[in-house]
Amino acid sequence: MDDSLTRPSSPAGLSCYMAVSQFLGLALIAMTGAWMGQYRGGIAWESSLQFNVHPLCMVIGMVFLQGDALLVYRVFRNETKRSTKILHGLLHAFALVIALVGVIAVFDYHRKKGFADMYSLHSWCGITAFSLYFIQWLMGLSFFLFPGASFSLRSKYKPQHVFFGIFLFILSIATCLLGIMEMLLFNIKATYSSFVPEGILANVLGLLLIVFGLVIGYILTRDEWKRPPLAEELALSMDFKNLTMGESPSSSP
To answer: Signal peptide: which range, if any (predicted)?
Structure first.
């Protein structure tokens, strides 16, 4: 039988919202790069431009890739659950690596310039978001990818995993907004109120961050857009549940 006849197509509207989310995400990256290139001198590691690596990496990792990782279970509806889990984990891993480069860049830049670290609300929120994100990734890896966790333990942890995933995404966007304001006050405080082009660009970037977060949130909270379990997954899930709870897979409920 044709596999396309047995596997449901994407729900109406999902593809449109997904396209909008990707357009907004790429626009965020392009706009951040334009800000650093046009008004902050560009990006380089071994120079005074090292700081500019930080905002670009954080937008790519903690916003765009993190958002895409959250959408994996909405996009890949007909692939096996394990394949979807692996892709979900890999996207989060890439996000962590890129964000780590951004964190190293700002600490290294401050060290070279003799600037103080970890005194602003932006830095507190940022290190909290990054640390919790890493812990969330490790927990997800332990519970859902590596064997060993029982069905009941996975079931109990899953709501917390989903909640903190959305919370960390919101915290990441809020931290980026704080970072934008901090950069503007440090660099163009005297002219910011005069509607200078850099200030307008940064403000638009902040609005795009909010809209991107809203679109991702809307996709994630539509119940009818959630990935339905495939028939074979339901059977495997029941067997796994019975085995980890000490029952025979063939025993009646």
So the answer is: none
Residue 123 identity: S
pLDDT of residue 233: 55
In this model, does residue 212 exceed pLDDT 60?
yes
Beta strands in 21-166 (DSSP E): none
| Residue 41, both tokens | 């001198």
Helix-helix angle 121-140:81-113, to 10 degrees: 150
Give the position of tokens 């290294």. 108
Instruction: Give the mean model confidence (pLDDT) for residues 219-235.
Output: 78
Angle at 93 between CA 87 and CA 97, to 5 degrees: 145
Q: Which residue, 95, 225, 101, 94, is CA-closest to 168?
A: 95
Predicted confidence (pLDDT) at residue 110 exceeds the cutoff of 80: yes
pTM score, whole prediction:
0.88
Task: Quick: pLDDT tens for 153-194.
Answer: 888 999 999 999 999 999 999 999 999 999 999 999 999 999
Q: What is d(CA 129, CA 135) in angstroms, rounded to the nearest whole number?
A: 10
User: In a 3-state reduction of DSSP, which class is residue 178?
Assistant: helix
Q: Which two tokens stand for residue 171?
A: 């915290």
The full set of domains in the chain, from first to last, is 12-231 (1.20.120.1770)
> Degrees (nearest 5) of the Cα angle 45, 51, 52?
85
